[in-house]
Design goal:
It is a single chain. With 181 residues, this protein is α+β, with helices and mostly antiparallel strands. It has helices spanning 10-14, 32-44, 87-91, 116-122, 125-145, 148-155, 172-177, and strands at residues 53-55, 59-61, 72-73, 78-79, 94-99, 104-110, 162-169. The chain has two domains: 19-89, no CATH class; 94-177, no CATH class. Strands 5-6-7 form a three-stranded antiparallel sheet. β1 (53-55) and β2 form a beta hairpin. The structure holds iron/sulfur cluster (2 copies).
Amino acid sequence: MSEDNKGVTYSFDVCSQCNSVCCRDARPPLSKRRKKILKKYLNSRKIDSKEPFVKEKYSYPAFDEDFLCTLFDKKTGKCSVHAVKPETCRAGPVTFDINFRTKKVEWFLKKEGICAYAGVLFRDNDALSAHLEVAKKELTRLICELDADDLRAIVKIDEPATFKIGDDDLPLEVAKKMGLT
Ligand code: SF4
Ligand code: SF4
């Protein structure tokens, strides 16, 4: 198992057993570091990956004509890069937003209607706390590593089927690059 896979919770594997549509039109943000890790992983496993990433307002995995993430393995029905998948995929069903007024990073949980597992987590305080701790680490690292323009584009994306479960001060380096200091 990859070094990159340390500190994960049981929740890390739940998504790989889920038949939901989270990998369709997902567009998980990719930092430069994550792209390097993914390329190395794809090469080492000889997974066909001619054009694995797209860069528009920010970088994310390419997708097919059905908007399914190119890293999704249709044969197995699982993520082909599960061990090193992007931070937002690792954190799911927890997501984030940045509040520019309060200078906080806010944590959200998907609603049960779009993620049955989120409902299970919500009713189990210990499991939610354990997963939230890992999700926060993953997402905090992501927002520290992303370029400011990428981050601005990402936080403009609406995630209506979620609700806030907490917030933390933005890391100083993120506040600085976003021009909030
Ligand atoms: S976030 Fe929820 S719905 Fe999406 S793949 Fe994971 S468990 Fe399934
Ligand atoms: S990287 Fe993997 S988990 Fe994330 S959207 Fe693509 S196939 Fe799904």
